[in-house]
Write a structure and sequence with these properties.
Oligomer: heterodimer
Distance between the termini of chain A: 42 Å
Structural class of chain B: mainly alpha
CATH superfamily of the largest domain in chain A: RNA polymerase sigma factor, region 2, helix turn helix motif
Helix content of chain A: 55-70%
Shape of chain A: globular
Distance between the termini of chain B: 110 Å
CATH class of the largest domain in chain A: Mainly Alpha
Radius of gyration of chain B: 33 Å
Structural class of chain A: mainly alpha
Bound molecules: zinc ion
């Protein structure tokens, strides 16, 4: 049994420490996912919490032989859909304009050599905010979280061929958005 | 012809025939992130990008894009998040525990009425099935809670009644038993049953699998036409019946002392 499988098994038995370990292990991934769905740092925190509550209440439906991440992202997606539906139904919670592309929380130490990488990360994140939600989700699942075509097809309930063509389209839209935000982004490869 | 004139001529011909080939070029640039291109496509693409600065930019972006994307996979929400998330679980767990306690108390009250005992035998088995065994039971979602419930007196009392009074001949226990328990029991059990229906209906509408134990059930549901929910409920009823029997047998085995008087003693009938 892998470490993760053991932790999941303990979580199912109600071991609080195992649950804490699982939250710690996946919180950055869950938060990153939530951020892409709601594009607001505070809202993403709420959504990420919702996602974990769902994980907790659905642990028994996880089939041990399957990969955990696609299962987690499926729950995350459902929680995000519910969250966005609720958001649509209620009036805006602030009267100040919500910034569309919030700066990413700076969570990792970045040595000088990585500043370019950080700049690009922010640029890509901003460009993600320009995409349609369908394309953004495709980039999120495939390029960011690294799921394969079959896993994405299962989550979205569409054929693998459709995932492939949509993912191609999404990448094109992303590159276009990056070049619109920063035409110099296509100048050279490092 | 110099280079400029040559390029102008190419653009002129393209404009009067197919328009811009950039769309096709970009589709190839994007596609090569997933699979290597055919040799001929690679060569056609580099032929185009050599003369098209715009597609060259595009290709440059595509080349560096994977790395920042992977970096976006994890964003630390901060230490406060972990604690808040762990705390957020608490009220939820307490709510579930309270619900269970209430359920147990109501049942205990009913159990003190002798006329109720006979039906309770089967309903008891059903509730235990609902609590622990049903693939879509609300409590299957609660790691650790099921065990705590099992250790609580009310449910143990149900097990005891089930063991002693389970009528072996009753196979079609479902609707008859629900009806026979009368209003008070009905209120409790209807909630559970409605919840069951709701969950099944929602899962069916969403087309999502209900979990490992119901994979087969889910498949047959999807394959069938009409009455799908009804069939599923029938299947679940059968499952409960099996669980009730097993529970009765198991607790009989564990308690040989009680086995002798399990031959059909029925209170209040
Ligand atoms: Zn071009």
């Amino acid at each position: 049994m892998s470490d993760l499988a053991l932790i999941l098994e303990r979580c199912r038995q109600g071991d609080e420490l195992a649950w804490e370990a699982l939250v710690r292990q996946y919180q950055s991934r869950v938060y990153a996912t939530a951020l892409q769905y709601v594009r607001d740092a505070d809202e993403a925190l709420d959504l990420a919490q919702d996602i974990f509550v769902r994980v907790y209440t659905h642990l028994d439906t996880f089939e041990g032989h399957k990969t955990f991440l696609p299962w987690l992202l499926r729950l995350a997606r459902n929680a995000a859909i519910d969250h966005l539906r609720r958001r649509k139904a209620r009036p805006p919670r602030r009267d100040v304009q919500v910034e569309d592309n919030p700066p990413l929380p700076d969570t990792r130490p970045l040595p000088d050599a990585q500043w370019e990488s950080k700049g690009r990360r922010q640029l890509v994140n901003d460009a993600m905010g320009q995409l349609t939600s369908t394309n953004r989700e495709m980039i999120l699942l495939k390029e960011i979280q690294g799921l394969n075509l079959k896993e994405i097809a299962e989550i979205l309930g569409i054929p693998v061929g459709t995932v492939k063509s949509r993912s191609n389209r999404a990448r094109l839209e992303l590159a276009r958005a990056i070049l619109v935000l920063d035409p110099s982004a296509g100048m050279s490869t490092p | 012809m110099n280079d400029n004139q040559r390029e102008r001529m190419v653009q002129g011909v393209l404009a009067r025939t197919i328009g811009s080939p950039c769309g096709r070029a970009r589709a190839l640039i994007s596609a090569q992130s997933d699979d290597p291109l055919e040799k001929v496509d690679t060569s056609l693409l580099s032929g185009h990008t050599a003369h098209c600065p715009s597609c060259r930019s595009f290709a440059a972006v595509m080349a560096w894009l994977p790395r920042p994307l992977v970096e976006l996979a994890e964003v630390d929400p901060g230490e406060a998040f972990t604690n808040a998330t762990l705390r957020a679980m608490l009220p939820w767990r307490q709510r579930v525990a309270r619900r269970l306690r209430n359920l147990g108390e109501e049942w205990m009250a009913l159990m003190r009425r002798p006329r109720f005992a006979w039906e309770a035998a089967y309903i008891g088995a059903a509730i235990i099935g609902l609590l622990f065994a049903a693939p879509i039971s609300p409590l299957r979602d609660v790691p650790g809670e099921a065990l705590r419930v099992a250790q609580a007196n009310p449910v143990q009392a149900l097990v005891e009644v089930s063991r002693r009074q389970l009528p072996a001949t009753v196979v079609n226990w479902g609707d008859a038993a629900w009806a026979a328990t009368g209003e008070r029991a009905g209120t409790i059990t209807r909630n559970w049953r409605d919840d069951l229906w709701d969950r099944l209906g929602r899962a069916w509408n969403a087309g999502t699998p209900l979990g490992p134990d119901t994979a087969e059930l889910g498949a047959s549901l999807r394959a069938g036409r009409g009455n799908r929910i009804r069939k599923a409920i029938d299947q679940i009823k059968k499952d409960f019946y099996g669980i009730g029997t097993e529970l009765a047998t198991a607790s009989g085995r564990n308690n040989p002392h009680n086995q002798q008087d399990s031959s059909g003693e029925r209170h209040g009938c």
